[in-house]
Amino acid sequence: MAYPGYGGGFGNFSIQVPEIQMGQPVPETGPAVLLDEYCGFPAFSDAYSSAGDCVYTYFSAVAGQDGELDAEELQRCLTQSGISGTYSPFSLETCRIMIAMLDRDYTGKLGFNEFKELWAALNAWKQNFMTVDQDGSGTVEHHELRQAIGLMGYRLRPQTITTIVKRYSKNGRIFFDDYVACCVKLRALTDFFRKRDHLQQGSVNFMYDDFLQGTMAI
């Protein structure tokens, strides 16, 4: 396949969803379960059995009567869950693009199935971040981001890595919230491109309006 991000476990959410206690850091996990296996979870409903499922507990505590999370509700849900651990909570803008990445029914919100996928992705990205942050600074620098992107299976040119660092870094350092925003955009734009490259050759033509719809949403 001619695409980056589809061979590495972190790029395609290939991890198990861990069970954690409220407010506790997410334990270390590794690639194990493919994304498709998460798609079979039942939709949010009053009949859903939440016994032993911390992810559903976090979701249902914040979701409105429509059984979905908008950006502000998602931000509150993730903050209350403690998934960020010792890092700063996710910004509202990062939560908006998280929704855009997985909002397949175009409601502008996340249902429980979509939230479950996001939870898996965040756990994987957090583990990746912790792995490459070798000095324990709570940030990643240029060379660490290059390593992180490689671990996710992306194969990007040095110039592209430099562009990403300039976009998401503060004084050359990328904090966890910006790192996750970067991962979301990489995944979403790769999905957008891949769906239009029917021959899977890494080259595609599309209309200007289609380009805007795909990129302005992220």
TrEMBL record:
Chief location: cytoplasm
Keyword Cytoplasm: yes
GO cellular component terms, semicolon-separated: cytosol; endomembrane system; plasma membrane
Domain EF-hand intervals: 120-155
A single MF term (Gene Ontology): protein heterodimerization activity
InterPro entries assigned: EF-hand-dom_pair, EF_Hand_1_Ca_BS, EF_hand_dom
Short name of one Pfam family: EF-hand_5
Keywords linked to the UniProt accession: Calcium, Cytoplasm, Membrane, Metal-binding, Repeat
Membrane topology: Peripheral membrane protein
Subcellular location as annotated: Cytoplasm; Endomembrane system
PANTHER family in the cross-refs: CALPAIN, SMALL SUBUNIT 1 A-RELATED, GRANCALCIN
Protein name per Swiss-Prot or TrEMBL: Grancalcin
Gene field: GCA
